[in-house]
């Protein structure tokens, strides 16, 4: 998937001379995500890898030098195709591994050219103002604050929290 994305964008050297050209969005947190990071060189800690938790084996590759972007999604039909290609192999994983190596890209992936609106604050090199949440006092980077009723809040205090504070042990 990542190799096809790079190829579509004409990025040949993602770890070298092209290393600042690419921002990648991944839509699942599974092994495919780590593979995308390895192939593209886009890492979460460099802000070049963006995670959208949609539970889909798909990724969008954005060439920030010209705005070209391509979204590549694993085709659901490739699973049943693998079964018909290698009925002699027992075990779904083995069957799929053998078949996926032989399948052309068109059978494996859907490819869409897309446009991604990347605000300045999304770029890896963004140096922005840091604000402080008026409720919890924690610092917020990259314009992730929420402005509500004239207050500046972090997303947690604005009601998007994924945790609940409990008594310490
Ligand atoms: Zn807060």
Could you please describe the fold and organization of this structure?
The chain is an alpha+beta fold. It has two domains: 2-122, 60s Ribosomal Protein L30, Chain: A, CATH 3.30.1330.130; 131-160, no CATH class. Helices cover 28% and strands 21% of the residues. The protein is built from six helices and nine strands, in the order αβαβββαααβββββα. The protein has helices at 2-9, 31-40, 77-85, 92-102, 105-108, 156-160; strands at 22-26, 49-51, 58-63, 69-74, 109-114, 131-132, 139-140, 146-148, 151-153. β3 (58-63) and β4 form a beta hairpin. The chain is globular and about 65 Å long. The mean pLDDT is 94. Bound molecules: zinc ion. Zinc ion is lined by residues 133, 135-136, 138, 153-154, 156-157.
List the helices and strands and how they pair.
Blueprint: H1 2-9, E1 22-26, H2 31-40, E2 49-51, E3 58-63, E4 69-74, H3 77-85, H4 92-102, H5 105-108, E5 109-114, E6 131-132, E7 139-140, E8 146-148, E9 151-153, H6 156-160
Parallel strand pairs: 1-2
Antiparallel strand pairs: 1-3, 3-4, 4-5, 6-7, 8-9
Helix pairs in contact: 3-4
Bound molecules: zinc ion (ZN).
Zinc ion (ZN) is lined by residues 133, 135-136, 138, 153-154, 156-157.
User: Compounds present?
Assistant: zinc ion
Mean pLDDT: 94
**Remind me, CATH topology of the largest domain?**
60s Ribosomal Protein L30, Chain: A
Strand and helix order: HEHEEEHHHEEEEEH
Radius of gyration from the CA trace?
A: 20 Å
Main sheet characteristics? 5 strands, mixed
CATH class category name of the largest domain = Alpha Beta
- Shape label: globular
SS element count, helices: 6
Strand content: 15-25%
Q: Structural class, from helix and strand content?
A: alpha+beta
Number of E-type strands: 9
